[in-house]
Specification:
This protein is α+β, with helices and mostly antiparallel strands and 105 residues long. The protein has two domains: 54 residues, Molybdopterin biosynthesis moea protein, domain 2, CATH 3.90.105; 37 residues. Helix content is 37%, strand content 12%. The protein contains three helices and four strands; from the N terminus they run βββαβαα. Strands 1-4 form a two-stranded antiparallel sheet. A hairpin with an 8-residue loop joins β2 and β3. The longest helix is centred in the C-terminal third of the chain and has 19 residues. The radius of gyration is 17 Å and the shape is elongated.
Length: 105
């Protein structure tokens, strides 16, 4: 899943999380998870001043956003000094799975 500015949304993308009104974050959702975006829905969300949404997959390349490979490389570097610690390697593997899931859902 990917958190994107609404201006990058395109028809056919699918919401990965409910969309709520910016001024009522505890209120009921405007659109539910799993809803496919259409041009008219994007316009309606824009009119409601929704700034960002979460969509399935990773459909948009955003400037300065790391690729999956970059993120996994950073993870490897961060855990490099504790490579002999089994507990730390378990933690690293949990992070690796989360990164992969977030980038490929």
């Amino acid at each position: 899943m990917q958190h994107i500015p609404l201006m990058f949304a395109k028809a056919g993308m699918v919401l990965a999380k409910d969309v709520k009104r910016p001024n009522q974050p505890q209120g009921p959702p405007i659109c539910g998870k799993g809803t496919p975006l259409t041009g008219s829905l994007i316009e309606r969300l824009t009119g409601m001043q929704v700034a960002t949404i979460v969509v399935e997959g990773h459909p948009v390349a955003i400037e300065d956003e790391q690729t999956l490979e970059d993120q996994l490389g950073t993870l490897d570097r961060r855990f490099q000094r504790v490579a002999e610690d089994p507990l730390m390697m378990t933690i690293k593997e949990l992070y690796r799975k989360q990164i992969i899931r977030a980038m490929t859902d």
